[in-house]
Design brief:
The complex is a heterodimer of chains A (283) and B (285).
Chain A (H helix, E strand, L loop, with lengths): L1 E6 L7 H11 L3 E5 L8 H4 L2 E16 L9 H5 L21 H5 L5 E16 L2 E8 L6 H18 L4 E5 L6 H7 L4 E6 L3 H15 L4 E7 L5 H13 L4 E5 L4 H7 L11 H13 L2
Parallel strand pairs in A: 1-6, 1-7, 2-5, 2-6, 7-8, 8-9
Antiparallel strand pairs in A: 3-4, 4-5
Helix pairs in contact in A: 1-10, 5-6
Chain B lengths: L1 E5 L7 H11 L3 E5 L7 H5 L2 E15 L9 H5 L5 E4 L8 E4 L9 H5 L5 E16 L2 E8 L7 H8 L7 E5 L6 H7 L4 E6 L3 H17 L3 E6 L7 H9 L3 E5 L3 H8 L4 H4 L3 H18 L1
Parallel strand pairs in B: 1-8, 1-9, 2-7, 2-8, 9-10, 10-11
Antiparallel strand pairs in B: 3-6, 4-5, 6-7
Helix pairs in contact in B: 1-11, 5-6
Classes of the chains: A alpha/beta (283), B alpha/beta (285).
């Protein structure tokens, strides 16, 4: 069983487009969407949700005003500026450490567990799909990613699947780190821009900390051939194989608007490129 | 006035809009709060005059004082401390997982033996610079660090309220974005007219409504995709501040680190008009 993660560093390079096509091309796998606070893969996979689960993580302080003596000890102690001068908790600032509730001499503060989101196991025409939705303005996206990764792995083991294919989040922070943990291969999708190069360099460094196979493809490569070459040369210097180039193709957006993966739509240059990339990646 | 530029979906053009808006205006302070992947410097090309390390506080246990009672582990909400109690054959052990630590101070405050002090752990770098009259500040998270909000907060400590502050926010809708946009007078949401753009715009709008920050939308690559983003904005009464057409010239310029204004100076007027409109919307609010 091989776990393949698609990441980018920079947002908007085409991770979900590529992963959606991998869903159509691969057999005997489970798909996972780890971009939990801006999940889009379901718009290509059209899931039929079979299981819904609450995701509980962290907690938020609640001040019981009838017990509060307004001594201000909680405000002094809170490192996150989450308690207003009017003794109300600003839930977006509260990091759930619980220190205020411990220092309050009047037991006026309790910690309430957060329902931070939901995760789902769904059927799709491409096979099983594990995905999630983080609650609005919630934290703990890394924990939710870790949860759905675990669920997907267990499902793959139980059903003796060959692949777990994961649409990753942008950036390099905790959701990306949680996505990288335990994968066999990270495929970086970048674009031929200075921003794409800069951000790919950083995510390559993060991925390399995990001692896994790291590969790269350049999407919309023909928008700037010179930058494409610079990126490929840089990857070569770092021992990161470049396993494909996808041309800029207006068909991608047309397919997306109709809710189709590129390879399920009409035969086109970008679809052909993604097919070749999957052939390189799958073994 | 503090204007943040966010999106939900990555790659819609936040940095493009933030950078070009900043260049079209005067008396600007630009804060790049996309600390995991800061890119604005590629386009603004500021001269950096100061670099400083950014830290968070993490616990350090004095094992001469520690009796492995486990109180610190009990009070840590993030499982950032593990205590193995002393036994016949072992003296006991304390492990700190500083990556998980939020720096709340609970362990050091509540340790009955006063055996915990807080020490600085480096998480990234803050760079301060200028481009002509514009002040520029960026945060850059160290590779391997998991949490960006502490660094974003430290970047925002430099806010100069005598200037118009423009904040380039990270993608997504969770805590890094919240930390970046919190306290803004207005947020510009940059989207694209595709199903992904619409899906993530809806999430971003929910966040801003929860934070009670007034906002408007810029539709980038406005002539591709479909009309559903426009329909959504119309139905929700959301102001579309600007529409930027898809242009291979703009895309090519972007790929080389050039701004829209440098190749199409007529956009100066559009960005200035958007700023005036934002001012009106803030006052209305």
């Amino acid at each position: 069983m091989k776990q393949i993660l698609v990441i980018s560093g920079k947002g908007g390079t085409g991770k979900t487009i590529v992963t959606g096509s991998f869903a159509a091309l691969s057999k005997n796998k489970v798909m996972v969407d780890c971009d939990v606070d801006a999940a889009d893969l379901h718009l290509l996979l059209h899931p039929d949700i079979k299981e819904r689960h609450e995701f509980r993580a962290g907690s938020t302080a609640v001040i019981k005003n009838n017990l509060c003596k307004e001594c201000g000890k909680c405000i002094q102690t809170c490192r996150f500026g989450a308690i207003t001068s009017g003794f109300k908790i600003e839930s977006f600032s509260c990091e759930g450490c619980g220190l205020c509730s411990r220092v309050c001499s009047y037991n006026a503060i309790i910690m309430e567990e957060n329902i931070a989101g939901e995760w789902f196991i769904s059927d799709t025409k491409y096979g099983p799909f594990v995905h999630a939705k983080l609650g609005i303005a919630e934290e703990n996206s890394g924990k939710l990613v870790a949860k759905i990764r675990q669920v997907a792995r267990e499902l793959a083991e139980k059903q003796a699947l060959d692949y777990v294919i994961i649409d990753g989040p942008p950036g390099i922070g905790c959701p990306v780190i949680a996505s990288l943990s335990g994968v066999d291969c990270a495929l970086i999708v970048t674009e031929p821009t200075l921003s794409g190069l800069h951000d790919a360099q950083r995510v390559i460094q993060v991925a390399k900390q995990f001692n896994i196979s790291v590969k790269l493809v350049v999407n919309k490569y023909d928008l700037n051939l010179k930058m494409t070459t610079i990126i490929e040369e840089s990857c070569y210097q770092q021992g990161v194989p470049v396993i494909g180039r996808i041309p800029f193709d207006k068909t991608v957006v047309q397919a997306l608007v109709e809710g189709n993966t590129v390879v399920d739509y009409i035969q086109c240059a970008s679809g052909d490129a993604i097919k070749r990339i999957w052939e390189e990646l799958k073994d | 006035m503090i204007i943040s530029v966010a999106s939900g979906k990555g790659g819609t053009g936040k940095t493009t809009v933030a950078v070009n808006l900043a260049l079209a205006l005067k008396n600007i302070q630009f804060l790049d709060c996309d600390v995991e992947e800061p890119n604005a410097h590629i386009f603004l090309k500021p001269t950096i005059v100061k670099k400083k390390k950014a830290h968070v506080l993490v616990p350090e246990i004095d094992e001469l004082k520690c009796n492995y009672c486990g109180k610190c582990m009990e009070v840590c909400a993030y499982h950032a401390i593990a205590v193995l109690p002393a036994s016949e054959n072992n003296k006991g052990n304390v492990l700190v997982f500083s990556n998980l630590c939020h720096g709340c101070g609970a362990c050091s405050l509540l340790c009955p033996r006063v055996a915990i002090k807080e020490v600085e752990k480096e998480i990234g770098v803050i760079e301060i610079g200028k481009k002509s009259e514009m002040q520029f500040i960026q945060g850059c998270l160290n590779i391997g660090e998991a949490m960006s909000p502490p660094l974003i907060r430290q970047v925002k400590e430099h806010i100069d309220s005598a200037r118009t502050v423009i904040i380039d926010a990270p993608p997504g809708t969770s805590c890094p974005v919240i930390t970046a946009v919190k306290g803004s007078d207005f947020c510009v949401l940059v989207t694209e007219p595709t199903p992904f753009g619409l899906n993530d715009l809806i999430l971003a709008v929910e966040v801003l409504r929860k934070l009670e920050i007034p906002f408007g939308v810029v539709i980038n690559r406005a002539d591709i995709g479909d009309g559903k983003v426009e329909d959504y904005c119309c139905k929700e009464g959301i102001i579309v501040l600007m529409r930027i057409p898809f242009s291979k010239e703009i895309a090519k310029a972007y790929s080389c680190g050039k701004t829209i204004l440098s190749i199409s100076p007529e956009f100066n007027r559009d960005f200035q008009d958007m700023y005036v409109r934002i001012g009106t919307l803030i006052n209305k609010n």
